Amino acid sequence: MRAVPDDIRDYQERLDAEARPICDLLLATIERELPDADRKVWHGHPVWFFDGNPVVGYHRLKASVRLLFWSGQSFREPGLTPEGSFRAAEARYTDPGQVDGEVLRRLLLEAREIQWNYRDIRRNRGLMPLRGVRS
Fold first, then answer.
1. Residue 28 and residue 80: Cα distance in Å, rounded?
2. Cβ atoms within 10 A of the Cβ of 67, count?
3. Does position 128 have pLDDT exceeding 70, yes or no?
4. DSSP state of 84
């Protein structure tokens, strides 16, 4: 398994005692399921990318940890809540026991397969799917 980048490791180390177990679980699962994704702290939290396109990330909110899938509204797997004005969807957790590992694995498989082109959203207004997208 490849080493976690320093910026993501630093992010994890700064988390409070409530969020840290949740984020450690998310980090381990995402790293295992998307080993070929680029990843870094982007806009203040860990995000994984394919070809410069963000696909999944998480961050600490005041009352929970948000797991965000940039193309999640196009996924077949249920359980995500729409977020924002385009195709993103999220799940929120307050306890590591709420994270269903098998559901998360399936969501990450979909994150690899179904991607709206966020990298070029300003240029194309999000109209051009990057890969695997159904409208």
1. 20
2. 24
3. no
4. S
Most distant CA atoms of the chain, gap in Å:
41
- Ranges of H-type helices in the chain: 6-13, 20-33, 101-113, 121-124
Distances (CA, A) of 24 to 8, 46, 86, 119: 11, 12, 28, 27
Per-residue pLDDT tens digits for 5-17: 999 999 999 999 9
Burial of 84 (0-12, 13-18, 19+ CB in 10 A): exposed
Considering the entire predicted model, what is its pTM? 0.88
Residue 125, phi-psi category: left (phi > 0), alpha (psi -120 to 50), beta (remainder): left
Bridge partners for 6 per DSSP: none
Distance, in Å, from the CA atom of 39 to the CA atom of 28, rounded to the nearest integer, reads 13
